[in-house]
Request: fold
Amino acid sequence: MPVSLNYFLLDRGDALSRELAANFHRLAEEKGLRRSENAPEVVVSIGGDGTMLHAFHQFQDQLDRIAFVGIHTGHLGFYADWKPNELEDLVTLMADGGGLSNRVVKYPLLRVQITSDKGSESFLALNEFTLKGADATLVAQLNINDKPFEMFRGDGICISTPSGSTAYNKSLNGALLHPSLEAIQIAEIASINNRVYRTIGSSLVLPKHHHCDIIPRKTQKLLITVDHLAIPYSSITSVRTTVADQKVTFARYRPFPFWSRVKDAFVGDI
Ligand code: NAP
Ligand code: MN
Reply:
């Protein structure tokens, strides 16, 4: 007995993505899927990984009941891993019932809590959080599990999820982490190292239940980013980062191993 699924679709807004979105809606209607703005079970993103970041943040309050799926209209994506010519297969699989429960993967997320003169704010990141000096070198103490670890001076600090390890973190020479690992990775952005200033230099991978606090030197103008979002702060007291309690769910209607995506995206044919 087919189960009718509620879905929401977000596209990047370019001509190809919009055309595919129209095709998706037509096929979905033929197969009895229902559109839902407020309570979808599946969120379909058509565009790039950046489009998936938007979709994630739009529905981040409903992560416990939503599965995301991405179709790429540019190069192969990490979150957008369905090809445009597989659209019909995807709709068919979505419509064939049987529920989603055995066709999903769950990836860890990063929790960021910022205490500033604005009070305390909490963010969830799918890729990463960065902290940078807005107009001068960032100077900040890093504590790991409440113990002082180092005094950082440099452009900034990037803390990423395993699925975000292939994004900004990779440009910083961080390791690529398989998303089955519940961890966060701390990577340096251009740290100053000489006889006076010293940082560890390597990326650090922290397991669940560990936390890293960043305590910037007072009254620095700072810029934080959470995935594609950038927010300026005039003064931050502290930032706490941990593996989040929540995870994000992706619908896996067919297997596409993480290491195959890494190879296809960065190595190509051998
Ligand atoms: P963008 O400038 O279009 O993104 C930069 C590139 O990162 C795009 O090619 C994007 O893919 C790709 N990307 C996003 N998430 C990825 C992932 N998990 N694994 C591998 N590649 C990924 O901006 P955006 O689309 O809004 O994405 C924001 C992200 O850009 C941030 O979360 C950060 O990771 C990344 N970023 C990277 C650098 C850097 O490497 N130096 C600097 C700033 C930001 P699509 O083209 O498919 O969207
Ligand atoms: Mn993009």
About this structure: DSSP finds five helices and 16 strands in the chain. Residues 15-30 form the longest helix (16 residues). The helical segments are 15-30, 49-58, 87-95, 168-171, 258-266. The two ends are 45 Å apart (CA to CA).
